[in-house]
C-alpha cells in the first residue's frame, strides 16, 4: 500500500490513502458500509477477471463460500473433506481453538495459517489479505475468521 503524507503549515501531518486502502482500513475496524464497498469491489474485480479468462486469486469454491458469509478456514476444511476434529489433529491445533478461529472469535497466527493450509492441501495465499499479508514475525492477524457483519450470516 502506498501512503503519502502532507505536513500542514501548523505542523500537523495528514496521511493520504487510496480509496481502496481507506475502505479496507474502515472495513477492518468494523464499518459495515466500507465492508460492503470492499465486497462489491472485490466481487466486481473477480468476475471481470473470470470473464476476461485471466487467472484469479481465489478458486470458485472459496469465492462462493466467502460471498455466502462463510469463514475461509471452514470453506477450505470442507473443500478438503475434513471435519473440525480431523483438521485440528492434522494441523496440530487444539480443537476448541480451531473452532473459535473458524467462527472469527480468535486471532490466527501466520504459523497456524500455514499449518491449516498444508493440512487442507491449499495454497496459504488463499488465506492472506492481498493488501496486507502478515510478515513472518507478525504475532497474529484477524484473518481469516468469519465475517463480522451479522447481516452476512442471515439467510
Automatic annotation (TrEMBL):
Residues 73-127 form the HTH cro/C1-type domain. GO terms for molecular function: DNA binding. Residues 146-155 have a biased composition (Basic residues). Residues 131-155 are annotated as: Disordered. InterPro entries: Cro/C1-type_HTH (IPR001387), Lambda_DNA-bd_dom_sf (IPR010982). It comes from the Bacteria. This is XRE family transcriptional regulator. It comes from Methylobacterium terrae.
